[in-house]
Write a structure and sequence with these properties.
The chain has 394 residues and is α/β, with parallel strands linked by helices. It has helices at 3-7, 24-33, 71-82, 84-94, 110-123, 132-136, 138-149, 164-177, 194-202, 261-274, 292-306, 318-321, 328-342, and strands spanning 9-18, 51-52, 99-104, 155-158, 183-190, 223-224, 226-233, 240-248, 283-285, 313-315, 344-345, 367-368, 373-380, 384-391. It has a single domain, classed as 3-Layer(aba) Sandwich (Peroxisomal Thiolase, Chain A, domain 1), CATH 3.40.47. Helix content is 36%, strand content 19%. Helix 3 packs parallel to helix 7 (138-149) and helix 8 crosses helix 13.
Length: 394
């Protein structure tokens, strides 16, 4: 491993759009004050639940990109606008062909395909001008990202369910380690659609009320949407991606290994890759979906990984924005980066009353603390797990 990789790679800029707001400032203000942002689901949802819905004030894509216009790509455009100067600086510093794009997504703009299908079922034809590859495919997402950033390095979409954008960070790290690029725009984007809402409902995982991760009264998940991006560079200033760890336990198509062995392996691999010890971890951003099985499994895996220490603070932020699926790893990475830069950890919203079986230090109020090293987890269907270790700025 190179000396640069040993110190970690700095994250020089980041941004997010989600149910808490359409700017990073709005999002972090709400997160800091402990405000949830869950609202009724999209029209046509045939059951009661709440969702993390992005507000409607999103500009359409420029006319030249009109065929790619979708809610998902509007999230992307809004989030990228915040960090455009940093992207341009990286492009000038390294060369546009030396800056890659690696983004995770689960369904991208599947809602556009659903609407087109409904039109076809009603009138026998797709909406005029509808282009399935431009509006509702990962190819359309890549083309939109390239057009909005001017980046010409390698580009990839990672679609690995709820671990997608967490794994995008791992891929980005490998690209820089291998010398393929000098910087990567890494992130995730996903929008609400009926396939995910009804799919999770069919599995008995959707809660009709706000999700309550780690609470003894937890009943299931809420689905959210949004986008987040981070600029990972070979050199620069900012919090650092220190290490990544991945595993695949393949215990079951949708149910995690109840012993959390795959999750534990991912966390241990990330800690080893970062060159730190379990005792160095100050904060864990948990996957924390709010289902009985997932929270119990993750708690067991965290205890096994970090030992009996009572110090690490463990928080799930899904009570604020819902589970944003393929975008979750990137959105929660932004939350962690803000924690490392500003010295506070959000409350684990909805956790009170805590499940005594969890056995972790889970705050139900904001904690102001100097955090040096944080671990962030994303666990997906099929036992696909990823953990990321971030460090405070040097």
């Amino acid at each position: 491993m190179s000396d640069g990789a040993r110190r970690g790679y700095p994250i020089t800029a980041w941004s997010t759009v989600n149910g808490l707001g359409t700017s990073t400032g709005q999002v972090m203000s709400a997160l800091r004050s402990g405000q949830a942002a869950l609202s009724p689901p999209p029209a046509g949802t045939p059951f009661e639940t709440v969702c993390g819905v992005v507000g409607p004030d999103l500009d359409p894509l420029p006319e030249a990109l009109g065929r790619f216009d979708s809610r998902n790509n509007r999230f992307v455009q809004r989030a990228l606008a915040e960090i455009r100067p940093s992207i341009e600086a990286a492009r000038e510093r390294w060369g546009s062909d030396r800056v890659g794009i690696c983004v995770g997504s689960s369904t991208a703009a599947m809602d556009e395909i659903e609407s087109a299908y409904a039109s076809h079922a009603e009138i026998g034809s797709l909406p005029a001008g509808f282009d399935v590859f431009a509006c509702g495919s990962f190819d359309g997402l890549i083309r939109t990202l390239r057009a909005l950033t001017g980046l010409e390095g390698p580009a990839a979409i990672v679609s690995n369910a709820c671990a997608s954008s967490g794994k995008a960070f791992a891929s980005a790290q490998r690209w820089i380690n291998a010398g393929i690029v000098d910087a990567v725009l890494v992130g995730g984007a996903d929008s609400l659609c009926q396939i995910t809402l009804r799919g999770f409902r069919s599995l008995g995982l959707i809660s009709s009320e706000p999700s309550r991760p780690f609470s003894r009264e937890r009943r299931g998940i809420n689905i959210g949407e949004g986008a987040a991006f981070a600029l990972l560079e070979r050199r620069g200033q900012g919090p650092r991606l220190l290490g990544t760890g991945e595993s695949g336990d393949a215990h079951h198509m949708t149910t995690p290994d109840p012993e959390g062995r795959g999750a534990q392996r991912a966390m241990e691999a990330a800690i080893a890759d970062a060159g730190v010890s379990a005792s160095d971890i100050d904060y864990v951003n948990a996957h924390g979906t709010g289902t009985a099985f997932n929270d119990a499994m993750e708690a067991r895996a965290i205890r096994a990984t970090l030992g009996d220490r009572a110090d690490p603070i463990v928080v799930s932020t899904k009570g604020y924005v819902g589970h944003t699926l393929g975008a979750a790893g990137a959105i929660e990475a932004v939350f962690v980066l803000e924690t490392l830069r500003n010295g506070w950890i959000p409350a684990s919203l909805g956790a009170d009353p805590l499940d005594p079986e969890i056995g972790l230090n889970i705050p139900t109020a904001r904690v102001d603390a100097d955090i040096r090293i944080a671990l962030s987890n994303s666990f997906a269907f099929g036992g696909s797990n990823v953990s990321l270790v971030f460090g405070a700025p040097e």
